[in-house]
Amino acid sequence: MNSFRHLWMTGVVSAALLAGCAAPPGKPSKDSETLAPDQIMDFAVLYAENCAACHGPDGRGGAAIALGNPVYLAIADDAAIRTVTTSGVGGTSMPAFAQSAGGMLTDKQIEVIVSGIRSRWSKPGILQGSNPPSYENLLKSPGNATQGALVFKTYCESCHGPGGRGGPKGSAITNPSFLALVSNQGLRTVVITGRPELGAPDWRADIAGKPMSEQEITDVVAWLASQRTQSVAQPSSSASNDAHH
Predict the structure, then answer these.
(1) Which residue, among 50, 67, 95, has the nearest Cα to 189 in the 3D structure?
(2) 18 CB contacts (<8 Å, ≥6 apart)?
(3) Do 157 and 114 reside in the same domain of the chain?
(4) CATH, residue 221
(5) What would the pLDDT profile of 123-167 be if each residue is shown by its tens digit?
(6) In b/e form, how buried is each residue of 195-217, taking b as 16+ CB within 10 angstroms?
(7) Could you tell me the residue range of the domain that residue 51 belongs to?
(8) Are residues 218 and 166 in the same domain?
């Protein structure tokens, strides 16, 4: 019995020594190696480290819009999302993330973020049967602020209050600090896609059976833009592709 026990223990020790020879002392295993920041290609990591602070975990929204809003993803194409992620939006809280624009991410990492947002949170066909407005102002019109005031009263005042100063169901949309940090495209985006995480409907649901038209959206954005306080810094006019704010 003692001989058998001795042989068994010898085998265990030998196996341990052989395993140790396979991994030289001081050499980390492959799984324990830390990737350089520009080598990280995992969407969950990239999103958590670069996007979640503003856009919320899993794209659910926060200080900025919910990137996981399928209506937003049906309106904004990959090119628009990529442009904003790459270059940011001047005059707003959306920074540039591409190394070429002073950020920390490579073009491949930005592509991982853009494709990951689309593959995880979009819902193909969600706008089927509707006539969605264009994400950007394809009319290339500055809009009519006077008409926009009427549009606001019709579609928005019930939530955001008279003059957009806030109401029981919506925030003060004409707040100077808010308007100073959002571009016209950002305003358009919110009017079209809503902010479901805050209970704000998209362009179809402000009035049942009466979606906002392309012109009405353009006009209400013009009115909101006209409410900016001139003494407060305004977003630059080049911020026409703001997909986030």
Answers:
(1) 67
(2) none
(3) no
(4) 1.10.760.10
(5) 999 999 999 999 998 777 889 999 999 999 999 999 999 999 999
(6) bbeeebebbbebeeeebbebbbb
(7) 40-121
(8) yes
